[in-house]
Amino acid sequence: xxxxxxxxxxxxxxxxATASMAQTYPNRLIRFIAPFAPGGGxxxxxxxxxxxxxxxxxxxxxxxxRPGAGGAVGTALAAKSPPDGYTxxxxxSAALSVNPNLRRxxxxxxxxxxxxxxxxxxxxxxxxxxxxxxxxSVREVIGLAKAHPEKLTFSxxxxxxxxxxxxxxxxxxxxxxMVHVPYRGTAPAALAVLSGEVTLSFGNILALLPHVKGxxxxxxAVTSAKRSPAAPDLPTVSEAGVSGFxxxxxxxxxxxxxxxxxxxxxxxxxxxxxxxxPDVRKQLSAEGGEVVDSSPEQLAEHMKVELKRWAKIIxxxxxxxx
Length: 322
Fold this sequence. Notes:
Blueprint: H1 2-24, E1 30-34, H2 41-57, E2 61-65, H3 72-79, E3 87-92, H4 93-102, E4 114-122, E5 125-129, H5 138-147, E6 153-156, H6 162-174, E7 179-182, H7 186-195, E8 200-204, H8 205-213, E9 218-222, E10 250-256, H9 261-275, H10 278-286, E11 290-291, H11 296-317
Parallel strand pairs: 1-2, 1-3, 6-7, 6-8
Antiparallel strand pairs: 3-10, 4-10, 4-11, 5-8, 5-9
C-alpha cells in the first residue's frame, strides 16, 4: 500500500512539474538542429523557421548545423537530446524515411525516438547539368548516358539524400548507368556541378535554381509530379521521358520523444501560424517550395507512409548505402 501511495505521489509531482514547464515555456534559448551543411535547402528552411519562431515565442531560436551521413548525424544528436522542448530538429525525408531503409546501424528509430510536431514544406529536386554538357532535355541526357555508360557523374548532398535517391531512380527507370558522387551537404554538391567536377546533379531546387536562372547551370527538368511555380518552363522528368518518375524531399519539425504534449501543441500552433503567413508562403513558392503544414498526428502518419514508400523504391532499384 505504501509503495502504491509513493508511486501515486511521484506521478502527481511529475504531472505538476510537466504542467509548470509547459506554462513557462520557453524561458531560454532553443536549439534548432539542421542536419545538413549551411547554404543548402534544409538550412534555408531552418533559418526561416528559426527567425519566425524567435519572433513568435519571444526567445531566441538558433540553428545548429550538424551535417553528415545523409542527415543521420544531426538527427541522431536530436534523438539523444533532453525532451524538454529546447531542442528541435528539422526532420527530412532523407533522415527519417530513406536512411532507415538503407542503414542497419542507425543510432535512432524514426518512429520511436521522435515526437512529431508539424510538416512544413516539400521541394522538388532539379536535374541540372554543367553548361558544357551537350544536352538540353531528359531524352538527350538518357541518350548520352547510354552512349557512354558510367561516364556521366551526378552529385548529391550525401548517401541516402534526396539527390542520391533521385539519381539512382533515374538510372533504373531510364535504363542508364551514371555514377553517384556524394558530398557533405547540398551546397558542396551544387558547387561540384558548377565547377564541372561532376557532370550533373539532382539537387534541391533551393540550391540549384538561382544558378539555372543565372545561366551558370542548365536546367533540364524537375523531379516532382507537377511543374514548379518557381520554374514553370522546366518540365517534370515524368512528362519529359521517364513516365511515373517522382522524387523530392519533404521537411518537418520534430522534438525528442517524451517532450511534453503541451509543448508539442504550443509549437504546432506556432508553426501553423508561420506556414500560413502570406509572406512565408510567397517566399517558399518563389523558391520552388510548397507549404504543407499539418498536425502532429498527420506528420506521424506521413512518416509511417513515407517509410513504407521508400522501402519499396529502394528494394526495386537495388539502392545501396555503399
